[in-house]
Write a structure and sequence with these properties.
Layout (H helix, E strand, L loop, with lengths): L21 H17 L13 E2 L11 E5 L5 E3 L2 E3 L4 H9 L7 E5 L5 H13 L5 E8 L21 E11 L2
Length: 172
């Protein structure tokens, strides 16, 4: 016979050694719903037109510190507008005076290089030397054909991907 004979001695109930996974599944479904609702709230919602980059994306920290220079030269730290005079104090408050925190600096492509360097100097003067520049990922541009080789015309500009990528760090 394939089965065994169970003997019951008195009123005792037999021990059940099976794991009840129903409560575990319920907890996992609740956590899934919580993360689905919370994930869109954890993103930065400042609209900025980023230039494209072909650099390899760097790893993102758990809680990145984004400093955005908008087209009108205003500064946003995360989603909050911050003045240039209060930038260092606000960064100190948000990072707990950890000056080795990497600051992800992104700027609209219409921002002048001089203004961009002023913001980098403000970060350096505040003691924040780990600066990562953020841009959009794009495919490398094809080499244009040399004149006189009969290779044809150059192809149009490459399409950009909407995923932001940190394009290396700068230590002024």
């Amino acid at each position: 016979m394939a089965g065994g004979i169970r003997e019951h001695h008195g009123e005792e109930m037999a021990e059940n050694h099976e794991i009840n996974v129903t409560p575990f599944i319920d907890v996992m479904l609740v956590l899934l719903i919580i993360f689905m609702v919370a994930a869109p709230l954890a993103t930065v919602d400042v609209n900025v037109d980023l230039p494209a980059s072909t650099a390899k994306p760097a790893e993102r920290p758990d809680e990145p510190m984004y400093l955005t220079v908008k087209e009108d030269l205003s500064l946003n730290l995360g989603n909050d507008v911050v003045s240039r005079e209060e930038l260092a104090n606000t960064l100190d408050r948000l990072t707990g005076n950890k000056r080795d925190t990497r600051v992800f600096l992104r700027a609209d492509k219409m921002v002048d290089y001089g203004h961009f360097m002023e913001v980098m100097n403000l970060l350096r003067d505040g003691g924040y030397l780990k600066i990562a520049l953020v841009g959009l990922e794009s495919l490398p541009a094809p080499m244009p054909a040399q004149e006189g080789t009969g290779a044809g015309t150059a192809s149009p500009a490459p399409a950009t991907s909407p995923a932001p990528a940190a394009a290396g760090g700068a230590n002024p």
